[in-house]
Specification:
Layout: E1 2-4, E2 11-15, E3 18-22, E4 24-28, H1 32-35, H2 38-50, E5 55-59, H3 73-76, H4 82-97, E6 101-105, H5 109-113, H6 119-133, E7 139-147, H7 153-166, E8 171-176, E9 180-181, H8 183-186, E10 195-198, H9 227-234, E11 242-244, H10 266-278, E12 283-286, H11 289-292, H12 310-313, H13 317-330, E13 338-339, E14 355-360, E15 363-368, E16 388-391, E17 398-400, E18 421-425
Parallel strand pairs: 4-5, 4-12, 5-6, 6-7, 7-8, 10-11
Antiparallel strand pairs: 1-2, 2-3, 9-10, 13-14, 14-15, 15-18, 16-17, 16-18
Length: 426
């Protein structure tokens, strides 16, 4: 069972009578329930468990459930779709066997926009879900689904209120529209336990593409600086644990819509993960283009120009490398840590050249994406480091740091040829 703790920016797991910090390492599997058989789901969960993923984000009711025109029963009479909900429960139980929490979205946001889910039936649908799935310990409820909280606010409030009342031991969050955060609408309510943002799939120079997912509102545009969402949320009057629930997916085109644009690669997804986590996020969710939609040989089409089938996508290097971040964070008491802006003075360095630091009780992690030289202010540590090593985020290897910590530090390259490395001080 997961819980939050007052005055902490992190999540905790209660297991075997003990409470331990929980580092959320999520995978994006939106259409798992709609696309995979239970045998395929077992293959998927085994792969993700081996890579230390402990949360999977998936949707219970999506547009694809409505393709035959008869799926209104999901909301007006969900018990009628018995086979479907039996499968949902079986998937939840299977995930639990692999030590994975299911972060279930009751409905994709577009279903609210289309009027399928309304204030009239949101409460009853949530009540059904609470009874059908709420008995499993490995449940996290995720409201929304690529939508602003202002679009159907009363629907989300009705659904969330029922889920909180009927399953008080389950955490609740909200998956928002691209380049927005749940705190934009719910920071002054008690509806959510975790704030989630979607930093999205655009480069710094892609603020406006004339596409359906342009930000025409006034939320602002951070480009690739996903860490800025974390900073903004943690500076709120009553901050909650926060994480990036949808950064740029591995092997999706930069900006989504123009298939002539480059694909986001392993080094890019590493950058999003380390930037946000070292800013103080309670974890991170990775995504792969082919996996999130479970593109397979039997599919008539794919979204966003997926280049491989999901069974190949689960083997991509960026997805593999997320386990090294999890291993690094859980090798220390990360719950004692926080972002340390004073440790590495950036002095005008920004975007890819920014160096970010996270420190806590007896440790400090410094992530450098661009490979530029930098200095550290040892006076900002709070302890005298006895050991300095380079941590390679592409393979988890450690090597003694041949550097004068009081001088200019020049990082080596990581094993896959990238420029990002982590300096670990203990």
């Amino acid at each position: 069972m997961l819980k939050t703790v007052k005055n902490s920016n992190y999540l905790y797991e209660v297991k075997d009578g003990r409470t331990r910090p929980f580092f959320w390492l999520g995978d994006t599997a939106w259409l798992l329930l709609q696309k995979l058989s239970l045998d395929d789901a077992k293959v998927y969960f085994k792969n993700r468990s081996e890579r230390r993923y402990n949360v999977v984000q998936a949707v219970l009711a999506h547009d694809v459930n409505f393709e035959d025109g008869g799926a209104r029963q999901f909301f007006d009479g969900p018990a009628a779709a018995r086979e479907y909900w039996d499968k949902a429960e079986a998937v939840t139980a299977l995930a639990e066997k692999y030590g994975i929490y299911m972060a279930w979205l009751p409905v994709w946001g577009s279903m609210v926009k289309k009027g399928y889910l309304t204030e009239r039936n949101a409460g009853s649908y949530a009540g059904f879900l609470a009874k059908r799935l709420g008995g499993h310990e490995n449940i996290i409820w995720v409201l929304g689904g690529d939508i602003r909280g202002s679009a159907g606010f009363d629907v989300w409030k009705a659904m969330g209120s029922v889920l909180r009342r009927e399953t008080p031991d389950k955490l609740v969050t909200f998956h928002p529209f691209g380049r927005t955060c749940s705190a934009d609408w719910f920071s002054e309510t008690d509806l959510l336990d975790i704030d989630m943002f979607q930093s999205g799939h655009r480069r710094y120079d892609q603020a406006s593409l004339g596409a359906w997912d342009d930000n025409k509102e006034s939320e602002g545009f951070y480009g690739e600086d996903n860490w800025r969402y974390v900073k903004r949320c943690l500076n709120l009057p009553n901050p909650k644990p926060v994480l990036d629930g949808e950064p740029s997916y591995e092997h999706i085109h930069q900006g989504l819509h123009d298939f002539e644009q480059p694909l986001w690669k392993a080094a890019d997804v590493r950058r999003y993960a380390y930037w946000s986590v070292f800013e103080g996020a309670c974890g991170h969710t990775y995504g792969c283009n082919s996996v999130m939609q479970f593109y397979s040989p039997g599919c008539k089409s794919c979204s966003y120009d997926a280049r491989e089938y999901w069974i190949e996508g689960i083997l991509l290097p960026g997805g593999e490398q997320m386990k090294y971040l999890s291993g690094l964070m859980t090798s220390v008491d990360f719950s004692s840590g926080s972002h340390n802006d004073e440790l590495v003075p950036n002095d005008g360095f920004e975007k890819y050249d920014r160096v970010t630091a996270f420190s806590g009780a007896g440790f400090a992690f410094i992530y450098n994406f661009s490979g530029r030289s930098f200095r550290i202010d040892l006076g900002a540590l709070g302890f005298k480091p006895r050991k300095a090593v380079w941590f390679d985020p592409s393979n988890g290897a450690r090597a003694e740091a041949d550097a004068d910590l009081g001088g200019i530090i020049v990082p080596p390259r990581c094993s896959d040829g990238g420029t990002d490395m982590v300096l670990v001080l203990t």
